[in-house]
Structure formats: structure tokens, C-alpha cells
From TrEMBL, chains A, B:
<keyword id="KW-0274">FAD</keyword>
<protein>
    <submittedName>
        <fullName>Glycolate oxidase subunit GlcD</fullName>
    </submittedName>
</protein>
<dbReference type="InterPro" id="IPR004113">
    <property type="entry name" value="FAD-bd_oxidored_4_C"/>
</dbReference>
<dbReference type="InterPro" id="IPR016164">
    <property type="entry name" value="FAD-linked_Oxase-like_C"/>
</dbReference>
<keyword id="KW-0285">Flavoprotein</keyword>
<dbReference type="InterPro" id="IPR004490">
    <property type="entry name" value="GlcD"/>
</dbReference>
<dbReference type="Pfam" id="PF01565">
    <property type="entry name" value="FAD_binding_4"/>
</dbReference>
<feature type="domain" description="FAD-binding PCMH-type">
    <location>
        <begin position="36"/>
        <end position="215"/>
    </location>
</feature>
<dbReference type="InterPro" id="IPR051914">
    <property type="entry name" value="FAD-linked_OxidoTrans_Type4"/>
</dbReference>
<keyword id="KW-0560">Oxidoreductase</keyword>
<dbReference type="Pfam" id="PF02913">
    <property type="entry name" value="FAD-oxidase_C"/>
</dbReference>
<dbReference type="InterPro" id="IPR036318">
    <property type="entry name" value="FAD-bd_PCMH-like_sf"/>
</dbReference>
<dbReference type="InterPro" id="IPR016166">
    <property type="entry name" value="FAD-bd_PCMH"/>
</dbReference>
<dbReference type="InterPro" id="IPR016169">
    <property type="entry name" value="FAD-bd_PCMH_sub2"/>
</dbReference>
<dbReference type="InterPro" id="IPR016171">
    <property type="entry name" value="Vanillyl_alc_oxidase_C-sub2"/>
</dbReference>
<dbReference type="InterPro" id="IPR006094">
    <property type="entry name" value="Oxid_FAD_bind_N"/>
</dbReference>
Length: 468, 468
């Protein structure tokens, strides 16, 4: 490959840190999203911000698309090189730079694995709460770009609630620093929050200061089993209405329970219509008190069985079983699509029922689990994309699901991002003017559209075709 | 007054809701910031979003500056009509539209008084934590535009942590809706967070959905007295290092103690060099446990006296006394300037000492109090702006304070905003490229610069002149 820009990039990082052979590029042509694939022209692994700055300047000069990529666990085709270009990897920028126990912050490079952050700070009695299911392989850079959520979101919020400051390389190769080790900062626009969740379309995050909190002293885990989805959903509402804020409040329907139990054999009740996995953390006396109250509420709302984990081993097994839901469902069929339509939490029961009706209408298999306390569901379709006729029905089903979520005051994505996959639906949520404003904002940051192009913004919005 | 645009505006709202007489305009020519004043051309009180939409369309057509104004408690000249134009008041848009106890949200118009929100939701066992000292008169619209903080920030965060969704009229008169009653939403850029703290320079907020949380069950209040500022600051560090997160952790120095005690007579120790006002909320057993631990820490770090409030009346008096600090200091002299330089909390002791040194260097009176747990201090200068020579020394002192805060990894403003007053210093914090990016962002939203012009962005950055 003799492209001038590739030669210039090679001079910056050295031959061993840039790949251009097709056999090497294929691995970076897709992420965890089925049916989206495109070859990049090159893949580069810079060692520091200064190299990234130089790389971006070259891409800016030659108008080369840049796709920053963590571990590729994205579920909305956020890291596919849609227009070719240069994939930037952060495998060499994977250091924890600083843990500040006075200011309760950790400063990291984008390539650090999320779980490494959690474990490192927990060893010091501190806590980084955002815990996407992929946390054992996902990078913090990817989490920040997608504003990842997780199981602890109800009580502790999501990634954006923990990003205090960023170093960002802009599309013109200039570097900015936002925020700092500061609990409060209102000096100008909140560029930190704007960058979080911007999916690599506004700049490249090269360093992050994250907020930590004290590690909760203990945790209680409860599994409640139901013979009806509605009763489980009612329980969720009653927990909130009773002023409880559990750390975790997960919903798992029967198809997911079966798949997870097959996969991990932790003793989930496979004949149940639904289970709720509920955890509370904090001082022991308080966590126990809350779980006792919540257990009562689950019984009052028709749980046929409740089980409080008697050991951390047991609790850990339940928690990890839930985290394997995607992997477990993925074993059932050649193709798995995991969605994350989100609704106001009061609409969880309506939404779960709607998803089931939609699955029946289009004769497709959809299992549903997710963060019920956040109204964030993961309807997951097991299918085979080689079956074109079924694939069309799957797409129509998800279109109905997005429309229903919006109708209930919800959104097309709660924590996975828009990426390329949901870009035709963004206008459904944000409206024509909202989309226009976002495009203008993108243009202000990236006038030549080299930063992860074709993500968030589609060529055109999907027209809603109602099949009756 | 026969200006065409005024006539067109009058047609929209009716004569009784637009003021153009100079005698009426003077009241809107300044806010709570000394030495900034400019007359608007007109002041308007629309009744709903649709009227605001029409008003903005007229201002867009005639290029009229628009200054949205709450109660005018801004301390950085954020609501002065620097270039004249139209002040928009929200006195007729002061309704609570919805309290949703299932989704834990409240939907409000911008003119609602912050304290009204707090009291209304507390009656339902719910909690809206942001509590700026001005909360009894400030509006929620002003709080959102400034991303206001308050005494409960250490544990509960600031306004931006509670804004879930907004309705905004853009500079071209179009209306957008952001977010929703949603715990999670990553559909496109986070325009909600971008609008919060944008000081009316990107659009006009006409409605807000705010997050509520369950009301803490109880509260404990502790006053710790010190004979040295350093010991008080060390205590702050030790509380954080011991993994305590009190609801409130306020620092008050001797000059402030004296002024507050004169003003409110609650029995503060006027001979103390500093006091810490510390509160913890939550379940009673937990709040009591934490306050007991914290009381021990205060003693270990040299508090000469500690006092736990024995009743809510006593606690309330202490809390309210702290809230009166600005009013109390304002009685001491014709002019009071309250600043809010903010540093990483580990630097509180260094910063307080630096402020005192700077006050001595320029021979000016500066009292300091503030949110020590957040690193957010309020050095407050009592002076007389008619004394030009002293005024120059005051300005040089504050310039030194900003520079010192930045040097310590801090910021020029923690919760008051940039406004017109701090705009010449913004580049010190965000850098040349950061400022440039913010200007491009402003231009994307407001190409004709009609939205609160001359705020955030100065004609030129203040050159740092070091006086030795």
C-alpha cells in the first residue's frame, strides 16, 4: 500500500504500529452489531496524545475518516468504518495515570479496561460505579464515547455522572482540556458532558479524569420469581413508589432465564415467567433493612418465591449470570440483536407487553431483560440474518419497538448509542429541529466530517410505515 | 417609544406585559453584581412558549439582543443588558406543571422559585437537592442557566445532575425538546447538559423536567470551632479521606463569622478563627453514626469545640445563618463582591491561605466562606466602588485569586457562572483552543449573536499582570 497519508502516518508511529494488510483489517471491519461491516484502509496504534495529534493533522489534511475504537463491543455499529479510513486503537494507551485519594479521582488513558478501573479502586476502598455488562472487555474510552450505563445505574447513574475532565484531540489536530479534579466548574460551556456519549464524532478522547466515591460497605442480593410479567413490573413501580432506591433492579423474562440457566447453571427458576434481581448496597444495617422492605413488596405484588443470597459467592453467581444474558442468548441462533429502547420507568409493564405483542405480530423470537429500574429494556432477537425474509420481519419488529418507546415518552437508545444502526431513527426522538441543531453542532466541531462519519446522522430519516 | 419591533412585540403580549419607560427599565439594568449596569430597550413578560417563540422570531428579524432574566441574583453580571435589547421575564411562567411520583420527576416553568419546588416536593416525601443560598428568591430558570450549586453539593451534586429534559426556544425561534422523564437517554448529543449552565447564550429555556429523589429520613448538624484555618482545612481532607460524604461541609472564616453573628445572632463563636458547619442526612441510625465519626475527626484535627444541634430548630438556625453570609457581609460596606474560585478539595487550605495573603498584599478586606467539601470558596470583598483607587486594588486582588485557583488545578467559577464579569478570564481556564471551540459552538446555536450577547465571551482576554 503506497498511499501518501499511510506513509506519513507510518513515520509517526513506526511500521509495527500501523496495519494495512486486508487480512489484518478484517478484524476491525465490524463490531458487536450484526449486519454492519466495512473495511478500514488502515489501523493504527499510537502511543500518546502527541502522536494522535499528528495523526489527526494528517487525516485533516487528506480528509481521511477517523474511527476511534475500544474493544469493539458496540451494539449500534458505532465503530464500523462505514466510509473506510483509519481505525485508531488505544491498546498502547492503556495506563492508569493517577489515583488521587484526597480528591477521589482516577486519571486514565482511554485504553484501560473498565473492570480494571473498578478492581483497582476497590482495592483502595473506592468505587467506580458504571458497570456495563461488557465491562470485563470494554475500554473506558469506549464507555465514555457511548455514555455506557450498567446494572448499577438506578442508584449511581451512568458514565457521564463520573467524568470530571477530558483531554480531547479535535478534528483539526488541536488539543483541549475540559473540566478537572473539580466537584464544580461552570467556566463556559460544559464540553465534558458534550463529549461524553458523542460516539467519536466530535473529537478523540485521549485522557479522562473520573470521579470516584467511597466503596459501599456491604451488599444484599435478592431474587424474586413471578408467574406473570405484569406482577414483576408492578413490583418495580411499587419499589420506587415506596422511596426505595436499590443499587440494582433487573428484569429477566422467561426466554432469557432459560438461556442464562442453560449457559451458567446457577439455579434460576426456568419455569418462572419473569424474575427480578434486586441488590442494595451501603452500611450493612441499611442494606439489610432495605432488602427486607423490598422482599415484602415483592411478596405483596405476587412473587411466587423470593430468595436472599446467603453468601457473596451465591450473590456473585446470580449477578454474573445476569451479565451473561447476551452471550447466553447468542448461543441460541446464528444472529443476535440486542436493543435498548428505554421508557419512563412507569411504562415498563406496558413496554414489555408491547414487545411481546410485536414479536408475535411479526413471528420473531424476542427475549427481554434489562434495567427495569431505569426503564431501560434489552429486547433481544435471536435470528439468522441469512434468512432474508425473516430478517425483514425482525427489522420491522424493531422499528415498531422504537416507535412504541417514543410513543410512551421514551427514547430509541438508553445506553448503547445511535451509531450507524439507529441513525435513521434519531429524528423520531429529537425531532427535525433537534436533529438540525445536532448537525450544526457536529459541523462546528468537525467541519470536514472526518470524525467517525456516518454515525449518529443518517442520510435520511426512516419513514414510519405502519403494518397493520 | 415607537420602534417597529417594540410595536410588533406589543401585539404579541399586549401593552400591559411590555415595559419601555426608562423609570421601569432601570430595575432591569443590573443584577446582584456591583459595577455592571446597562439599560435594556424593553422588558417583556410572555405567558407561554408560543409567545416566546414569536418574540424570538421578531428579535431574530431585527437583530435585537435577548436577555432572559430570573430574579436577578446573578453574581457575575450574567443578566445585565450589556448591549441593550429585550429583557425577558418569566413572572407569568411560574407554574409547576406536573409532579410524577412514579417516575420521580417534576416538570416546571422557568419562573418557579427554587424554594417552592423544594417545599412542594418535600410535602410528598421527595427531594430536590440543589440549594443555592439565594433559593428563596432565585428562579429555577436562572438556576438551570447558571448550573447553580449550593450547600448540599458535596453529597448530591448541582443543578445539572437534576435536569432530565428541557424545552428550549432557539435563536431562530424554533423550539426543541431534549431528554425526557428518562433515567437514561443517549439519542444524539446531550443538548440538555449543554444548555444547563449556558447562561442564556444558546437559547431560552421555557420548560424543564427535573429529577427528584426520596427525601432523606433525618438530618444531623454539627458545628466545629477552630483556632486556626489550617486545622479546619485539614479536617475537611480527613473527612473525605475517611470515606465520609456529608450532605454539607461548609467553611466559614472569622470575618464572616462575626458578620453573620451580628446579622443573625445564633450564637456563633466570634472569637474562632474558623468554623465548619457539617450536616449528614439519611436514615437516623446512619446519620448519627456518620456525625459521631465526623465529630471524632474534627477533635482529632484540633477543633477547640464541637456542638451537635439538639433540635431541628437549632440546626435550622445554624443553616440559615450560613445562608445569610452574603447579606451579612453586605451590611459592612457600600459594595460587596462575592467570588467563587474553586480548587480541587485537597487544595482548600492552600487556597484559603493564598486568599488571605493576597488580601494583605493589596490591603483589601476579604472574608472567606464556602463549600469546602467541593473546594468551592466564596472570597468576599467588602469595599466601596466609589473609591477608585481601592477598587483597582480589589480588582487586582481578584485577578490574583483567579490565577492562584487555576495554578492549583482549579477554575475561575464553581457555581456563579462567567457572565460579563469573568469573561476576560475564561481563557485562563479553558485555553485558547477551548475558548475557540466554545465560540464556534455559540455560533452554531446563535449565528447572529442575539442570545445574551457579551456574556461568557469577552472582546479580549485579560493579560496577566503580575504585581510583585
Amino acid at each position: 500500500m503506497s498511499k501518501t497519508w499511510v506513509n506519513e502516518l507510518t513515520e509517526i508511529v513506526g511500521e509495527e504500529h500501523i496495519q494495512t494488510k486486508k487480512s489484518s483489517l478484517i478484524a476491525y471491519s465490524f463490531d458487536a452489531t450484526p449486519n454492519f461491516q466495512a473495511l478500514p484502509d488502515a489501523v493504527i496504534s499510537p502511543k500518546n496524545t502527541d502522536e494522535i495529534k499528528q495523526i489527526v493533522q494528517i487525516c485533516y489534511k487528506y480528509n481521511i475518516p477517523i474511527i476511534p475504537r475500544g474493544s469493539g463491543t458496540n451494539l449500534a455499529a458505532g465503530t464500523t468504518p462505514t466510509q473506510g479510513g483509519l481505525v485508531i486503537l488505544f491498546t498502547r494507551m492503556n495506563k492508569i495515570l493517577d489515583i488521587d485519594e484526597e480528591n477521589l479521582t482516577i486519571t486514565v488513558q482511554p485504553g484501560v479496561i473498565t473492570d480494571t478501573i473498578c478492581q483497582t479502586v476497590e482495592a483502595k476502598g473506592l468505587f467506580y460505579p458504571p458497570d456495563p455488562s461488557s465491562m470485563k472487555i470494554s475500554t473506558i474510552g469506549g464507555n465514555i464515547n457511548e455514555n455506557s450505563g450498567g446494572l448499577r445505574g438506578l442508584k449511581y447513574g451512568v458514565t457521564k455522572d463520573y467524568v470530571l475532565g477530558l483531554e480531547v484531540v479535535l478534528s483539526n489536530g488541536e488539543v483541549i482540556q475540559t473540566g478537572g479534579k473539580l466537584a464544580k466548574d461552570v467556566a463556559g460551556y460544559d464540553l465534558t458532558s458534550l463529549m461524553v456519549g458523542s460516539e467519536g464524532t466530535l473529537g478523540i478522547i485521549t485522557e479522562a479524569i473520573l470521579k470516584l466515591i467511597p466503596l459501599p460497605e456491604s451488599k444484599q442480593t435478592l431474587l424474586a420469581t413471578y408467574d406473570s410479567i405484569e406482577k414483576a413490573a408492578e413490583t418495580v413501580s411499587s419499589i420506587i413508589a415506596n422511596k426505595m432506591t436499590p443499587e440494582t433492579l433487573e428484569f429477566i423474562d422467561q426466554p432469557t432465564i432459560k438461556a442464562v440457566e442453560d449457559f451458567s447453571q446457577v439455579g434460576l427458576p426456568t419455569n418462572a415467567e419473569a424474575v427480578l434481581l434486586i441488590e442494595q448496597d451501603g452500611p450493612k444495617m441499611l442494606a439489610e433493612r432495605d432488602i427486607a422492605i423490598i422482599e415484602q413488596l415483592t411478596s405483596q405484588h405476587g412473587a411466587i418465591n423470593t430468595q436472599i443470597a446467603q453468601s457473596e459467592t451465591e450473590a456473585h453467581a446470580l449477578r454474573e449470570a445476569r451479565r451473561t444474558a447476551l452471550s447466553a442468548l447468542a448461543k441460541l441462533s446464528p444472529t443476535t440483536i440486542l436493543e435498548d429502547a428505554t421508557v419512563p420507568r412507569s411504562e415498563i409493564a406496558t413496554m414489555v407487553k408491547a414487545i411481546n405483542d410485536i414479536a408475535k405480530k411479526y413471528n420473531v423470537n424476542i427475549a427481554t431483560f434489562g434495567h427495569a429500574g431505569d426503564g431501560n429494556l434489552h429486547p433481544t432477537c435471536t435470528t439468522d440474518l441469512r434468512d432474508k425474509e425473516e430478517w425483514e420481519r425482525v427489522e420491522m419488529a424493531f422499528e415498531d419497538i422504537f416507535a412504541k418507546a417514543i410513543e410512551l415518552g421514551g427514547t430509541i437508545t438508553g445506553e448503547h448509542g445511535v451509531g450507524e444502526m439507529k441513525s435513521p431513527y434519531l429524528e423520531w426522538k429529537v425531532g427535525e429541529q433537534g436533529l438540525q441543531m445536532m448537525k450544526q453542532l457536529k459541523h462546528a466541531f468537525d467541519p470536514y466530517n472526518i470524525m467517525n462519519p456516518m454515525k449518529i446522522f443518517a442520510k435520511s430519516t426512516r419513514k414510519r410505515v405502519v403494518v397493520s
